[in-house]
Design a protein that fits this description.
mainly alpha; Apoptosis Regulator Bcl-x; 5 helices
Length: 138
């Protein structure tokens, strides 16, 4: 039952190559991402969030189709970020901020949005996250 608690504490260890990672490393990375997320949070327009929420509400769309909509929104939002920021980091943070905003807009979507986001992040950012952890621990 390895999971990340909503209060930021871990109840277990990460799987898939990140096992036994130092909790302090996780906290450092989370603080950096949260700071960037706060900046992005103010810049994401309500229309983008509402559009994605409508896709999540559409039960006729498969998870793959919704993931494609999320990916497209993240790519479009990435174009507006400062060019000095790592593309993958920006996309990762934008994904998390969009997820938060969608769930805050339509709380009933929590399970579907969370599962879709988790799968999307595993597909798109698994190696990047592993590299971030590795860079901080060296």
């Amino acid at each position: 039952d390895d999971e990340l608690q909503t209060d930021g504490n871990r109840s277990g260890h990460f799987q898939n190559g990140l096992a036994q990672t130092n909790e302090e490393v996780i906290r450092i990375i989370a603080a950096q991402l949260a700071e960037i997320g706060d900046q992005f949070d103010r810049e994401i327009q309500e229309g983008v969030v509402n559009s994605l929420a409508r896709h999540f509400l559409n039960e006729n769309l498969s998870n793959e189709e919704i993931t494609q909509h999320m990916s497209r929104a993240v790519r479009e939002l990435t174009r507006a970020i400062p060019s000095d920021m790592e593309q993958e980091k920006a996309m990762l943070v934008l994904t998390m901020v969009l997820t938060k905003k969608i769930v805050n807009t339509v709380p009933a979507l929590l399970r579907r949005v969370f599962n879709t986001t988790l799968n999307y992040m595993n597909q798109q950012f698994h190696n990047y996250i592993a590299e971030m952890v590795s860079a901080v621990t060296q």
